Amino acid sequence: MHISMWKKMIHPDDKPAVMKAFNEHLEGHTTRLENEHRLLAGSGEWKWIIDRGEVIARDNYGKPLRMVGTIVDITERKKAEETLRESEERYCLLFNNSIDAVLLADPGGGVYAANPEACRIFERTEDELCQSGIDCIIDTTDPSYYAVLKEWNRTGKFKGELTLKRKNGAIFTGEISSAIFKDKNGHYKTSIFIRDITERKQFEKEMARLDRLNLVGEMAAGIGHEIRNPMTTVRGFLQMLEGKQDCSKYKKYFNLMISELDRTNTIITEFLSLAKNKTVELKPQNINHIIQALFPLIEADGMITDKNIEIETSEVPDIALNEKEIRQLILNLVRNGFEAMSPGGKLTIKTFRDGDEVVFAVQDQGGGIKTDILDKIGTPFLTTKDYGTGLGLAVCFSIASRHNATINFETSLCGTTFFVRFKM
């Protein structure tokens, strides 16, 4: 092939680089010519080729006299390389942008790659994860850990939930999918996909708690009035008998029975507050105004029990509220806070705006909530008080639900804070 014909067949996009290398070789700047580029084939297709050449004779002035070379079709190789490149790009895209944490490890637990999500949820850099290995992220005190390990060793894969830990020691529940595979060199490796399901677990607990509340509420709506009616009759007859002369020696017993009936009636009233289908009228109101109206009553409760009160209200917008129910919610949380503290303790009532929420908070200086009942807070009839009904917090959760609000809390040995979050 004549050199002029070869030049015409070079792809326009490749031609500048090819001709530059070609001319440099002709001028003696390189000892050998080698290029990969596209060349027009007789079929009209562009083929990838590799051409190699060398000047083998020059005149006394260094001018090239003769050159030999070869052209090899590498189109298939180029297609394979392109397919591999695209595959690697897709892998990198999925690896780096996955909503799940992805770890690549060897069967012994050594990590050699971690994606950004893995670094985020474990609060470690990729280097830290690679240096520490799998052991640094697994909570080995989880009772199911050894069963998982046994299953993984037996089958080479695992799919399920496991307790994991972040760099600061905080634990969380992760949904894991892991399997062994062979890399391109035939070595066994492990892929581990992890999803932080903390929020999902909390949502499931909240739904279970609401289901219990709804069940109790349906029971309350169905039988509450039927119980109250005969109780009213019994109470009336006890009052009548109490007034009779020949029953005067039993007066203290009648008083005791009447007081117990009144206490039962109070419980039924709270019981009915749990009813899911209870209709309440909501209208725009400011929660600060409700707190101010209740303050004399709250202050009196504090003085009786020798507790201090601090009000820290911030300017917040009006939200849709039912004043009667919100008064009950505030009093329940405040009185719970008083009962959690020893004399001299301080209770702080706060309101503030947090994003698109108005937050009402009650903070006590008690000893905190015991860990064995943390997951049961708000469950009807759960109480740690000697004479409690276990309905106060359940009623608060029910009221919050009717206001499209949520209740959460923070607790420690220094006290507990309940937060009621209302959507604006």
Automatic annotation (TrEMBL):
- Per UniProt, what is one Pfam family of this protein? PAS_3
Q: In Gene Ontology terms, what is one molecular function of this protein?
A: phosphorelay sensor kinase activity
Q: Where does the source fall among the domains of life?
A: Bacteria
Which reaction does this enzyme catalyse, per its entry? ATP + protein L-histidine = ADP + protein N-phospho-L-histidine
Q: What is the enzyme's class at the highest EC level?
A: transferase
Checking CDD domains in the record gives: HisKA (cd00082), PAS (cd00130)
Mind telling me which InterPro entries this protein's record contains? HATPase_C_sf, HATPase_dom, His_kinase_dom, HisK_dim/P_dom, HisK_dim/P_sf, PAC, PAS, PAS-assoc_C
Domain (Histidine kinase) ranges? 222-424
* Domain PAC, first and last residues per copy: 33-86, 158-209
Query: Which EC number(s) does UniProt give?
Result: 2.7.13.3
Name the UniProt key words of this record, in alphabetical order.
Answer: Kinase, Phosphoprotein, Transferase, Two-component regulatory system
Q: What is this protein called?
A: histidine kinase
Q: Which organism is it from?
A: Pelotomaculum isophthalicicum JI
Please spell out the taxonomic lineage of the organism that makes this protein: Bacteria, Bacillati, Bacillota, Clostridia, Eubacteriales
